Amino acid sequence: MADEPRQGEENPTATRWEGAKLALSMVLVQLIIVGMMLLSELALNAGMNPFVLVVYRNLVAAAAVTPFALIYERETWKKVNLAVWGWIFVNAAFGDVMAVGLYFYGLRVTNAAYSAIFMNLIPIATFIIAIMIRTEKLALRKWTGNMKVLGSLLCVGGMMVVSLFKGKLLHLWPTNLLGYSHAQAPASNAGSHQEVVVGTLLLCGSSLSYALYYIVQAKVVEVFPSKYWMTMLTSLMGSLQAFVVGICFSHDMAQWRLKWDLQLLTVVYSGVFNTGLAFVLLSWVISRSGPIYPPMFNSVSLIITMIIDSILIGTNIYLGSVVGTILIVVGLYAFLWGKGKELKLDRRRAEAGEA
Predict the structure, then answer these.
(1) What is this structure's pTM?
(2) pLDDT tens digit string along 270-306?
(3) E-assigned strands of 231-336?
(4) I need a labelling partner for 60 at 20 to 30 A (CA). Which of 3, 12, 132, 305 fits?
(5) DSSP string of 81-140, one letter each residue
């Protein structure tokens, strides 16, 4: 048949389908993250301790994923050894205690829209670290490499515009439909400059930790290719680590008691969807595309969070936010184009070598 690929050639339909599944998986992850951001903002502003949220959501995630591990990867448990435990410990430290913990503390003194901006530092930091440790190549003499660099620079430029330039206040739609009493976020209050500085430093630290998490996650997938067991074990390890750190920060046991309110909803949502489902999807995407691909979709959550945060909670949207978001989206597509071309070339070389 004319549509059938020859031996040694890739199937165009299969390639497009896999590319679509990778992209759709990451969009779903970003939608889950948006829900987590908004719920967490409300719960943290209501007085919830950030590490209490990390501990309980990880326990919920482990409970949600365990049945799938027992059903689909029963024999994989035998491959867990000391080296795997070591990588899982490091993975949990970067991905849960440092990245999520710092993010929640930064979110508590800013807002969801402002903190979402810093998620776009992650792909840039991941890209630079990956180049430094030689897990990612930088081919400046090729169009693919130039597009990746251009996309990264546009994302950084867009983030700086959003962070530093406000411009005109835009009235695009009805805002604060929930009647939220803290609609004017700290990031926009002149009297809370110190909190904004602290929050910005915490969010920058979270972005760097997330970048290291993606690098370590790629190694964990290599030594222990198990989506469900790895998610469950990392969640348990992260919960234990966060509990130790949380006890050091807060000795009030009343903060560790959950009630039937927004805090419990946030814990269950974050555990099942954000830590559970999203972790499984991320593991699969990283195993197919490497550690650089997933964080480039963080700009999707920036756009959605900015819109929903404005409509429901009343966070102001300025002209600078719109201009910066456009730059970030253009940078995202430029980077993905270059990365996609590189993946296709690498796949062809691999198939040619096997033939």
Answers:
(1) 0.75
(2) 888 887 788 778 878 877 877 667 767 777 777 788 7
(3) 317-318
(4) 305
(5) -HHHHHHHHHHHIIIIIIHHHHHHHHHHHS-HHHHHHHTTHHHHHHHHHHHHTTSS---T
